[in-house]
Amino acid sequence: MSMQAIHNAEEQLTARVGSAVRAVRRQAGLPRHALAGAAGISERYIGQLETGRANISLNVLQKIAAALDVEITDLLVQEPVRYAPICGLLSGLNEQQLRDAHTVLARHFEAECQAKCGVALVGLRGAGKTSLGNSLAGKLGIRFVQLTELVTERAGMTTQELVELAGLDAFRRLEREALVALIEQKEKVVLETSGGLVGAPETYRLVLEHFHTVWVKALPEEHMQRVVDQNDLRPMAGRPEAMNDLKALLADRQQAYGQAEAVLDTSGQEEGSTADQLFQLVEQKFSVG
Known about the structure:
The protein is an alpha/beta fold. It folds into two domains: 3-75, lambda repressor-like DNA-binding domains (434 Repressor (Amino-terminal Domain), Orthogonal Bundle); 117-285, Rossmann fold (3-Layer(aba) Sandwich), CATH 3.40.50. Helix content is 61%, strand content 8%. The chain has helices at residues 3-27, 32-39, 43-50, 58-68, 84-91, 95-108, 110-114, 129-140, 147-155, 159-166, 168-185, 201-210, 220-229, 242-257, 271-285, and strands at 118-122, 143-146, 189-192, 212-217, 262-265. Strands 2-3-1-4-5 form a five-stranded parallel sheet, with helices on both faces. The N and C termini lie far apart (50 Å).
């Protein structure tokens, strides 16, 4: 095995153990600081472990397992089989029988497999995704979900804290996990995605496959002004070149955003007008709700 393969295997193990610790801790209703105190280790280490950034030792993992009242093996095994009887049945089939089983199952569940999970709004921050998403969900009678909020719930910390502590890769990994969990619920929702989600191709592919997608766009000047109007001056703070950077970012992501099924341009329009346009667009193009 090459050094790169060993490194990849170690990263996968770290991520898997971190996810297991987070899942068991949340199931037990333990805050991160409570687990840290019970295990006799720092809360910061727990945060790093759960986001796949900690160096794992069996000694520390044993302390965590004891604090969670589980066996250490429960934190090391792969995810449990979702429905063991099916797996047991399929394990006894030969190649041709497996192909036949796939055909039968695909035909039987064709409608469920092809059904979309609702509408996803993609695009840069400042286009109006949050207000439009809330309005659309209300008109469709379904739930509005912000993917970033699902990430922070999983991480037990704010987005800024997560990125500062564990890095952007950890955020993107949790973002994908949260999206997969949402898809598996098979609930119709209006989903607001982060502007940078398109930078994670596999996660964006899941959005495109499982949701009707709308690119909510605006002129760069309006993107910037709307963010500033939200009392967030970070984009401009000490950066006179911020507008040029924003234009470059829009140009760089245009092809990815353009993969959406529909486009809504909010430039120069009132919020109420664009909300009505979005609802009409969804009603005409998609079957949702």
